[in-house]
Amino acid sequence: MIGGERLEREDVERARELGIVTISIHGDARPYEDLEAALVQKFGLKAARVVPALGPGQAARENVARETASFLATALAEGAAVAIGASQTVAMLPAFAAESFPRGVSFVPGSGGYAGADRSLNPDHVAQAFADRTNGQSFALAAPLVGVDAEVASVLAGNDATNEVLRRAREAHVFISGIGTRFGGSAWDRAALAPEINDAELAELARRGAMSDISGRFFDTDGRAVAGAFDQRIIGLTLEEIRQIPQRIVATEGADRAEPLAAAVSAGLFNVVVIDRENAAALLFQ
């Protein structure tokens, strides 16, 4: 704990030297309150929550998920609507929803899901788990995240049931998602999305400067949507539709998310961050 406090003070001093924010140490309950304030000021965020960096793995994701669930419990009004993105971290959130969580919240999948026996990552599964945990309401989206081809994706996205769920997602008060690892980076081959993309699409994404994705929607280093053949196969909210949702929360951790996170936050794709200390420092000093 002492080491963490020392590292935070180093970050704070560096932020002060760079003129990012005027900071004073309070010693309040939140150990990274000053880093959070600096992030809010630098990027014009609605809020920021920073947790200790525990390194890669389950414990680190759980730490971010716990903090995100705590933030949602205080930020949501009763009867609010939350659109859910595809993310390992977001999939953990329902387990940390406390009894104080607002009632009557609607949870809506913002995209289709992955095929296979393990549905835990799928937004409609997370929406159902959230609703069960909080006595809320959920909506199902019986569609894959990635269609076989553009024509199939268009047909599936255009049917009445899917269209109605995605309409509700577009009209949500809050969107919450993780963010993908850097496209083509060292962790890319382990990404859930990687097996869905064929060689021609991989080449096109690389040629168009893809940085990372949010629920299958790729963006470049400037946070702009990357159009192309793969994007036409995605069933879910577009980046522009996500951008229209008032509160857009990213919950993520790990060094492989630093560059994608910087691109997305700088472009305004998210306006609330729940991240680990290492990513907070990377954002402040990019």
Q: What is the element layout, followed by pairings?
A:
Blueprint: H1 2-18, H2 33-43, E1 47-51, H3 58-75, E2 81-84, H4 88-91, E3 106-109, H5 123-134, E4 137-138, H6 150-158, H7 160-170, E5 174-177, H8 199-207, E6 210-214, E7 217-220, H9 239-243, E8 247-252, H10 258-266, E9 272-276, H11 277-284
Parallel strand pairs: 1-9, 2-3, 2-5, 3-4, 5-8, 8-9
Antiparallel strand pairs: 6-7
Helix pairs in contact: 2-11, 10-11
Helical amount: 25-40%
How many angstroms does the end-to-end distance come to?
Answer: 25 Å
How many DSSP helices? 11
Identify the strand order in the major beta sheet: 1-9-8-5-2-3-4
CATH topology: Rossmann fold
Average pLDDT taken over every residue: 89
Give unreliable regions as ranges.
1-7, 15-28
Report the oligomer.
single chain
Computed over alpha carbons, the radius of gyration is 18 Å
- CATH top level? Alpha Beta
Taken from the alpha-carbon principal axes, the silhouette is globular
Structural class: alpha/beta
Strand residue content: 5-15%
The CATH architecture assignment turns out to be 3-Layer(aba) Sandwich
What does this protein look like?
Helix content is 40%, strand content 14%. It has helices spanning 2-18, 33-43, 58-75, 88-91, 123-134, 150-158, 160-170, 199-207, 239-243, 258-266, 277-284; strands spanning 47-51, 81-84, 106-109, 137-138, 174-177, 210-214, 217-220, 247-252, 272-276. The protein has a seven-stranded parallel β-sheet with strand order 1-9-8-5-2-3-4, sandwiched between helices. A two-stranded antiparallel ribbon has the order 6-7. The longest helix has 18 residues, at 58-75. The chain is globular and about 55 Å long. Mean pLDDT is 89; it is low at 1-7 and 15-28. Belongs to the SorC transcriptional regulatory family. One of its GO terms (molecular function) is carbohydrate binding.
